[in-house]
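Section 5: illustrative case.
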């Protein structure tokens, strides 16, 4: 039996593990080449123990956990661990073979050795803006599928593997430089973990890690036990410009003592579109819901996952099977978060927000008129966060499982042949309520000196983000095209030289009766052009 570790040492080691993954994430951002990673910060980092259990995750993109879990399970379950060497690095992105949750998220996984013994794994993920201008009927159309394979063996780059990957990328110069950033982050993680092991010893480090998993489990169980026992269900229609029909989504949540179960029976079958989620993406979504509703200081490790049960029919849109396309799985994931919150509003109304927006994705690509190289500009636009208990929702932000930033106008225009003509909050887009929902944004981008292929659209074009407690829904998303630009077909089309397209994202739902909103707050919203004079009078009842 391992000797116990005192609580103070456990706490210090836990903080050190969290610091390692946060530093890894910052290293990717500082060293990255593409704007999508260095500006939008669309990346994540994690540590795993020798059994593939996550022991620390950086506070970056919650949905990325699905990809990180997938590659760890796959490598540890299918690889002869006795043959693993220091400097081996696995790369993967395939949603159906354990490498990711969509093909743009490429994961790097590397073992950590101390005195010839495998003691842990470091991993990181970055979203690569590549594989654009493709179909989404099935995953074979979405880009290169990379099962978890070695990119490095004993520290030696496998050039033929890299050549194969880069040959299938549309912007290989960006990819190879971003790969170097990911490699640097993993090497940093290896060094930091080895230094921690040298300070405390591997035995103490492993025992402290086990204690941290047990601690996270206890905190999670205590948080669940504070929720009234019962079955809480919610159903809602969902729309997106990627699919012609409404999709009717459902969730049922059962709380029994200190355990919670999420049942996704009754959801639609997987579609011939990129909306499908693999099971690891569903896991990441559910873990986000529980983490945000319970004690947020609970460590984000595998112990936190133990009291949570998830079931979903195989072959459904939330547990898709090969060859389902998965590019836009975040659209469904975001709506499921809102639905879980809505279901639990009966039990814990003071903790859940009104519904929030999804993300509208704008991708422009073509030949850069100055460099002659192919370029890709890809950005997912945030919108309005739902009103919270006692607070307005946040304006113009990514919400829930995506949590990335934007690409600053200056950075975008200096790198790509585009001009940003508008970047603004949209009046009346925040759902009215005693507490107003967050506002959506408008971002209009013009093609300069070339014809660009465009993919533009997302959810909440028909079904808005709903309010709570009498609050009204947020504004709808829409696409705006300049004169001379043909209507998009399933989000895809062409922007001629000088033409523009705009993403208008949806707003968050409001909370409470709008006529109970503080009169000074209504006047301030009117003064700041957040609401129109008509809305102030007819919805909020402002008389002066």
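Designed sequence:
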């Amino acid at each position: 039996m391992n000797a116990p570790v005192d609580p103070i040492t456990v706490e210090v080691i836990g903080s050190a593990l969290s610091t390692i993954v946060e530093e890894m994430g910052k290293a990717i951002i500082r060293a990255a080449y593409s704007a999508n990673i260095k500006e939008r910060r669309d990346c994540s980092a994690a540590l795993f123990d020798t059994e593939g259990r996550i022991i620390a995750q950086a506070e970056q993109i919650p949905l990325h956990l699905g990809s990180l879990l997938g590659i760890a399970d796959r490598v540890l379950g299918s690889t002869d661990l006795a043959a693993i060497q220091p400097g081996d690095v696995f790369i993967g992105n395939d949603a159906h073979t354990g490498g990711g949750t969509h093909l743009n998220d490429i994961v790097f996984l590397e073992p950590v050795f101390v005195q010839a013994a495998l003691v842990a794994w470091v991993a990181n993920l970055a979203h690569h803006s590549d594989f654009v201008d493709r179909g989404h009927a099935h995953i074979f159309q979405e880009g290169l599928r990379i099962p978890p394979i070695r990119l490095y063996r004993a520290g030696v780059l496998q050039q033929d593997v890299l050549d194969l990957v880069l040959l299938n990328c549309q912007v290989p110069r960006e990819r190879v430089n971003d790969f170097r950033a990911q490699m640097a982050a993993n090497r940093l993680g290896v060094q930091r973990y080895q230094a921690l092991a040298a300070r405390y010893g591997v035995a103490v480090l492993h025992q402290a890690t086990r204690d941290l998993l047990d601690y996270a489990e206890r905190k999670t169980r205590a948080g669940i036990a504070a929720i009234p026992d019962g079955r809480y269900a919610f159903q809602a229609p969902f729309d997106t410009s990627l699919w012609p029909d409404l999709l009717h989504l459902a969730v049922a949540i059962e709380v029994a003592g200190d355990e919670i179960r999420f049942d996704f029976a009754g959801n639609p079958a997987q579609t011939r579109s990129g909306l499908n989620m693999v099971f690891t993406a569903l896991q990441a979504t559910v873990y986000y819901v529980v983490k945000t509703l319970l004690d947020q200081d609970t460590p984000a490790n595998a112990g936190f996952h133990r009291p949570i049960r998830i079931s979903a029919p195989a072959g459904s849109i939330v547990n898709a099977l090969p060859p389902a396309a998965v590019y836009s799985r975040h659209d469904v994931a975001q709506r499921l978060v809102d639905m879980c919150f809505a279901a639990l509003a009966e039990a814990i109304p003071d903790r859940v927000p009104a519904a929030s927006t999804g993300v509208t994705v704008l991708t422009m690509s073509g030949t850069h008129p100055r460099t002659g190289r192919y370029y890709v500009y890809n950005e997912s636009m945030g919108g309005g966060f739902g009103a919270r208990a006692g607070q307005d929702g946040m304006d113009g932000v990514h919400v829930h499982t995506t949590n990335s930033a934007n690409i600053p106008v200056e950075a975008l225009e200096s790198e790509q042949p585009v001009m940003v003509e508008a970047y603004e909050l949209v009046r009346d887009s925040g759902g009215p309520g005693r507490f107003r929902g967050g506002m959506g944004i408008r971002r209009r981008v013009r093609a300069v000196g070339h014809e660009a292929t465009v993919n533009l659209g997302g959810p909440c074009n028909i079904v808005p983000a709903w309010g709570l407690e009498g609050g009204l829904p947020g504004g709808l998303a829409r696409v705006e095209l300049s004169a001379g630009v043909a209507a998009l077909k399933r989000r895809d089309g062409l922007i001629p030289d000088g033409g523009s397209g705009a993403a208008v994202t949806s707003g968050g739902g409001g909370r409470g009766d709008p006529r109970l909103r503080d009169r000074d707050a209504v006047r301030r919203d009117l003064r700041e052009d957040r609401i129109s004079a008509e809305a102030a009078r007819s919805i909020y009842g402002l008389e002066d």
